[in-house]
Amino acid sequence: MKKIGFLSFGHWSPQSRTRSAADALLETIDLAQAAEQLGADGAYVRVHHFARQLASPFPLLAAIGARTKRIEIGTAVIDMRYENPLYMAEDAGAADLIAGGRLQLGISRGSPEQVIDGWRYFGYQPAEGESDADMGRRHAEVLLDLLRGQGFAQPNPRPMFPNPPGLLRLEPYSEGLRDRIWWGAGSNATAVWAAKLGMNLQSSTLKNDETGEPFHVQQAAQIRAYRDAWKQAGHTRTPRVSVSRSIFPLVDDRDRAYFGREGHQQDQIGYLDEQTRAIFGRSYAAEPDALIEQLKADEALAEADTLLLTIPNQLSVDYNAHVIEAILTHIAPALGWR
Fold first, then answer.
1. For the stretch 158-184, what's the b/e string if a residue is b when 16 or more beta carbons lie within 10 angstroms of its beta carbon?
2. For the chain, where are the alpha helices, taking DSSP H only?
3. How are beta strands 103-108 and 247-249 bridged, if at all?
4. Average pLDDT, whole number, for the chain?
5. What's the longest Cα–Cα distance across the chain?
6. Domain that holds residue 236
7. What is the tally of structural domains in the chain?
8. Percentage of the chain exceeding pLDDT 90
9. Could you tell me the CATH number of the domain that includes residue 102?
10. Sign of the alpha-carbon dihedral angle for 117, 183, 277, 5
11. What is the pLDDT confidence band of residue 262, given thresholds at 50, 70 and 90?
12. pLDDT number for residue 278
């Protein structure tokens, strides 16, 4: 069985149905509830700063956790170049406890943003000889260490409140969250690095173009390299791997109007910066029978245990619930995902 969730960037615009930041936040909560009722497995959000999109995930995740019972809640991904790992450990612990241990926290070194070096405005800068990507990975390693729950801070001998014995850890602490951290890897090398540190793997709709092969072939190779590195590291638990896809079964006139002439049914090549050539995976939009055959040929999708459906959140909660239901009803059973 493959876990299936949605991934929302939370776009908002006065010209769309999602007209404000409040709309984007509240509609994400409503869609998570609808997805849970439909039998979906996850509600995930993307984090972008300086943009009319979702930016501060923990209040939103806590709200979703309080309004749902079963569905996983998570991120894909948080840019660690912007994060204070200590505040983040507290916020993540609180959100996970509110949700009853359902948080699946996707983090990464980040992607190109709306402003130049936006993390500098948040008060962070790379150390001498360190790149911004190195800084993001360093922040991630600090977070992972904090989530072990070990004490590290010297207690005040005359505290305001009584302390437990020994060094103090950050609170609130949520047992098991450390095993539910995912790394969004853009290359094979960072996927291997994530495996060595015991993080689950998130692979999105783009990655570094390392071989010139089709996107799904390169992504499948990345997943296999990750799993090999995990095994070599000697971890005892089974890791999880997610991939993101844009998938739209054409089952009614709305679907055909929105996506019947979908223009991105081939991989695209672009550059994330002057040095990094990237490959962007195709979108899928077709009648259910044709869509099933197309998805059968996606090697990376077959390798992954979790599918995150990127949704057009500005088309309304009702429409996106319809898309999720169509995939769960018409597509997932035929592919053995349900």
1. eeeeeeeeeeebbeebbeebbebbbbb
2. 21-38, 57-67, 85-98, 132-146, 188-196, 215-233, 253-259, 288-296, 299-303, 317-326
3. unpaired
4. 95
5. 70
6. 3-335
7. 1
8. 90
9. 3.20.20.30
10. negative
11. low
12. 86
